[in-house]
Amino acid sequence: MPAFLNDEQHWQRLREHLEAFERRIEDGFAVDAQTREERLQARTREWAQAIEEERPESLIEVLCFTLGEELYAIETRHVAAALPLPQFTPLPGTPPFVLGIVGVRGHIVSVLDLRVFFQLPIEGLSDKNYLVVLRSADMEFGLLADRIRGIEQLRRDSLQSELANLTGIRARYLLGVTLDQKTVLDGARLLGDPDLLVRDEE
Amino acid sequence: MPLDRDALRQRLLASFRAEAAERLATLADVLANWRESSASQDDIESLFREVHSIKGASRAAGVGQIEQLCHAWENLLSAVRHGDLPLDGERVELCRLTLKVVQRLHAEQAVDDHELAQLIDSLNDSAQGRAVALPEMAAGAPETPRDPATVRVTTQRLDALLFHSEVLLQHKLEAQAHARALKEHAAAFEPQRVKRTLGAGALRQLRDNIEGVPAELREALGDALDHLDWSMAQFDRLHFSASRMAKEAGLLAVGMTRLSESLVAEVQEALLLSGASLFEGVPAMVQDIASQAGKRVELEVDGANLQIDKRILDELRSVLTHLLRNAVDHGLETPEQRGLRGKRAVGRLQVELIQEAADRFELRVSDDGQGIDIGRLKAKAVAAGRLTPEQAEAMGTREAQALIFVSGLSTSAMLTDISGRGLGMAIIQDTVERLGGRIEIDSAMGQGTCFHLHLPLSLSTFRAVIVRNAERVFAVPALAVERCLRLPTSAIRTLENRPSVSFEGRVLPLWPLGDVLGLAQPPLGEGDLTLLLLRVRGERFVLLVEELLGDQEIIVKSLGKQLVRVRNLMGATLLGDGRLVPILHPADLYRSALASEASSLSQQARPRDSAVARRLLVAEDSFTSRGLLKAILEAAGYRVVTANDGLEAWNALKQSHFDLLVSDVEMPRLDGFTLTSRIRADRELAELPVVLVTALHSAEDRARGLEAGANAYLAKGGFEQENLLEAIRRLL
Q1: Residue B453, pLDDT above cutoff 90
Q2: HEC states along chain A?
Q3: Topology (CATH level 3) of domain B463-604
Q4: How far does B427 lie from chain A, in Å, by closest CA?
Q5: Residue pair B634/B642 in contact by the 8 Å Cβ criterion
Q6: What is the mean pLDDT of residues B26-45?
């Protein structure tokens, strides 16, 4: 309390406070007129906001995972399973993006390393390795992932599909980038790309 | 619950489709046989029954068009069946026509209403054309009673069961590993117990003489002794529960093993189907091809009762189709040509399934056509640059016949290549070899061709030799392995810079497996060489591998949908210990070997630099980290062996010599700290340099690592290869 107030002034201030409290008690603890006005205005603004209808077809459900320093997402309709990466077996004579094969529930799935496509640095020791198995009627393979971050709903129109530094092969497999900088992969394109097939001629 | 009409209809339709497909296949086969031999009463009966059943089923499923058509057809057949009408050529043709339309309707192809009406009219006319009043509709002959103990299961279900049984196999292995680990854990209590007995005397002495201890210490000592008592009791409880858990885990593992083994055996058994399923639709197909090619064929099928693994039958279906198509298109002559050569106008095709041994069978496909023209085949091969004229000249009949398996040459020399399939026979050979079989040809000019496909009855009887080379394990189909040899290094001779060995009087080319596969080949060891003598399609060659791990039965699996075909590999298999191992493709290996660059052996033959590469052991449970470490260290010129955890590393260290250990700290079974302490405590290993690489980078951890006796401690956070290599260089 500032020093220049003398005792009388203190008493005066106290009395004013008490009067204010009394008034509020009489009014049944109502807020003062100004606060009341402000609150009503705020509520009006809130209610006046047009409700944006979340149409189900405008939402896509994606599985998010990290790979290296980056965050990726892929539509869950292409995902058959996400599991800790079992011990894999590297194969001789396969292109660099094929990390090897793993056994998943009795059958064999090849493991692709997206870092090779996206020219991400393939270094650094990471201990958490997961496999995201993508499947369509006539294709199946697993993508290497560092960590699974869970499932999210994304608005399809929130995806930004042009990004200056996304070109060539990087852009080819992308559906777009979200505002929080998740890279959304084009699962249908990945699964349907004949270039990903390994078919050595005899 | 309200009846969902739509769903019900869908279900009915689905079951109608399945049933009709089966019946139509039977119908097609019966009708196909009527072409060359007259129909017996039995055939007419069975035809009538099938048509009647399809009619009934289509009515139930509400497929009106099929129902109408089958109704008219049934009327005609009914008249024939009762002997009221003769079954002449015209009527057989009408039946075929009707079948075609029903098949189209069944395949949901649009059929013109007018066409349908016309066909129904013809059927009715034919049935009534002889002015015979139609007899009363007889109720359909009763269904042949089915064995109530037999049920129908779709083969997809069986496939699913097979997958499950393999997953269970995996869990069994895991349960066994857990049981072993728990047993070791319980056993780890033992030394403590032994030491306690030794220390018991000292403790008793302390306790007895507690009065003699200065008073101010007496209480503290008493407390300490009490604490010790409590700890020991606690220790006993833990020991007891560990023993109990080990025992329970052991029982669980035994139970899982028993269950898994019997399930696998049962499923294998259930997967045996009768050979008849291979022949389904074949007679009709052969007649179709024959009509298209303007030829006449009589097909004889034998051995339909043989029980064969479904997975093999699945693969054989396209093989058989291909062989029969070839036989009709290229093997058999036209009726005129046959007439000129004094043969029956109708060509003979024979398909037989013959059991050769307890676990093998033969699929024999023979025709009495013109046979393989070796002269033309050789000329073709020379023209394609596959052979020199001299080679062609020197080639024996058998070798020359095998030329049809060479891509691009296959069928063309046999006559005209209508469909332009130059790859056909090569694919057939590939399929047969992948199934663990082989293929032989018998052919005499002008008299016919016979293909003998020798195959295993069950896929579980595919044998493979398991080898290890440069830290990787591979399976080699045993069928291709003629011998496993151990020869001294001096047995290798180099001819024109190509290594070779001589064996039983013949000089055979030799390639290190790593060179063939394009992988690093480890330098030759001190002892004898391990060699595999392979024989692939008549060619013999020798592969040098690091170690032979044994031979066993394996199940061949494809590499998945994305890896359609990978050079040098024919698939992969799951070994008993849960490891997934690639299966090498012997024919590819030979091709790759011929194409491979200068052998690593010729370089090794030169005196090596005085500095022999240092041997490092990397212990790391994360395979990514393990692979990375291995790559970094190998790039720096070290020889690297890896271990999956501390215990494996310890065993490796005890078994062979290493110059340095790079180890992770957090590992299952035995962590890096404990591993380091053990090494320091070991008489032979005490001096081994140890580098710990870890994600734990607190000061305490660092201190703990160095206290345990590590020579260097690198945190993964700031991990750079230079640091690691620098540390290693410093220590070696």
Answers
A1: yes
A2: CCCCCCHHHHHHHHHHHHHHHHHHHHCCCCCCHHHHHHHHHHHHHHHHCCCCCCCHHHEEEEEEEEECCEEEEEEHHHEEEEEECCCCECCCCCCCCEEEEEEECCEEEEEECHHHHCCCCCCCCCCCCEEEEEEECCEEEEEEECEEEEEEEEEHHHCECCCCCCCHHHHHCEEEECCCCCEEECHHHHHHCHHHCEECCC
A3: OB fold (Dihydrolipoamide Acetyltransferase, E2P) (2.40.50)
A4: 10
A5: no
A6: 71
Contact B588 A202 (CB under 8 A): yes
Query: Is residue B100 a contact partner of residue B27, using CB atoms and an 8 Å limit?
Result: no
Across the interface, whether the CB atoms of B560 and A105 are under 8 A apart is answered no
Among chain A residues, the shortest Cα distance to B423 is held by A202
Residue (of A86, A96, A85) closest to A120 by Cα position: A96
Tokens of B218: 């007496």
Q: Indicate the class that CATH gives domain A56-194.
A: mainly beta
With CB atoms and an 8 Å threshold, state whether B566 touches A108: no
Q: Do A93 and B517 touch (CB under 8 A)?
A: yes
pLDDT at B117 over 50: yes
Mutation target among A91, A117, A144 for the B interface, most CBs of B within 10 A: A91
Q: Which residue of A has its CA nearest to B715?
A: A125
- The reply to whether residue B622 touches residue A129, judged by beta carbons under 8 angstroms, is yes
- Mapping DSSP to helix (H, G, I), strand (E, B) and coil, where does residue B84 land? coil
Beginning with the edge strand found earlier in the chain, give each strand of the sheet holding B639-643 in spatial order: B639-643, B615-619, B660-664, B690-694, B712-715
Q: Supply the pLDDT for residue B521.
A: 77
Take residue A140 and report the two structure tokens written for it.
């199946």
By a Cβ cutoff of 8 Å, what residues of chain A touch chain B? 87-94, 98, 101-103, 105-110, 112, 123-127, 129, 138-141, 196-200, 202
Of the pLDDT bands very low, low, confident and very high (cuts 50, 70, 90), residue B135 is very low
Nearest beta carbon to residue B580 from set A101, A123, A202: A101
CB within 8 Å: A87 and B579: yes
Strand B360-367, strand B307-309: pairing: unpaired
How far, in Å, are B475, B544, B582 from residue B472 at the CA level? 10, 14, 9
Domain boundaries, chain A: 7-48, 56-194
Token pair recorded at residue B251: 């029982």
Longest dimension (CA), chain B: 133
| B550-561 pLDDT, tens digit each | 887 777 888 988
Q: CA-to-CA distance for B101 and B74, rounded, in angstroms?
A: 15
CATH architecture of B615-731: 3-Layer(aba) Sandwich (3.40)
CB B428 within 8 A of CB B416: no
C-alpha gyration radius of chain B? 37
Determine whether the interchain pair B566/A93 forms a contact, defined as Cβ–Cβ distance below 8 Å.
Answer: yes
Which residue ranges make up each domain of chain B?
A: 5-128, 159-270, 275-456, 463-604, 615-731
- Most A-contacting residue of B563, B567, B622, B692 (CB-CB within 10 A), to test interface: B563
Angle between helices B646-655 and B672-681 (to 10 degrees): 30
The ipTM (two decimal places) reads 0.71
- At B137, the pLDDT band (50, 70, 90 cuts) reads very low
With an 8 Å Cβ cutoff, are B568 and A93 in contact?
yes
Q: Give the residues across from B21 on adjacent strands.
A: none
Shortest CA distance to A89 belongs to which of B440, B647, B559, B252? B559
CB atoms within 10 A of CB B86: 10
Which residue among B163, B560, B566 sits closest to A141, beta carbon to beta carbon? B560
Out of B70-84, B421-435, B659-673, pick the least confident. Answer: B421-435
Nearest-Cα distance to chain A for B561, in Å, is 5
Q: Do A106 and B695 touch (CB under 8 A)?
A: no
Q: For residues B711 and B727, what is the distance between their CA atoms, to the nearest angstrom? A: 9
Specify the CATH architecture of the domain B275-456: 2-Layer Sandwich (3.30)
